[in-house]
């Protein structure tokens, strides 16, 4: 005789929500998207003609606030206060803190911050699986672009 399995209620997290809980995969993907936005915006700065001392705060402050909101939601999934996210602003502490939300599992059931998030969708899981390969390709290209200050690298043997 099979007993009916009661499914625990979950909620579908929205990316731009200010509250709620998100799991490790969503946290990784949301922060990766914010990092990609930051890298894209900073690589376009030389083309805009804005001085970096003016353009960098315009880009980085909103993205930092968004990262803190995403981190708060992840901390809430782990049953912790969102204030722990402020450790990202503390030098040296942020180096170890960045791994904690990725390694610790969230609470399986509802906690004081709400229902658990729904299981990850296949696009999220695929994105998380492909992320290391993307980083292996994109980060060195970004560093090379930054070293050239937006200029394409010269072709060996081309006339100057």
UniProtKB/TrEMBL annotation:
InterPro entries attached to this UniProt entry = DUF805
Q: List the GO terms this entry assigns under cellular component, sorted alphabetically.
A: plasma membrane
- Ranges that cross the membrane: 27-48, 54-71, 83-102, 122-143
Pfam families recorded for this chain? DUF805
State the coiled-coil residue ranges: none
- Record bears the keyword tRNA processing: no
Keyword Transmembrane helix tagged:
yes
Keyword annotations for this protein?
A: Membrane, Transmembrane, Transmembrane helix
Entry protein name = DUF805 domain-containing protein
Species name for this entry? Massilia atriviolacea
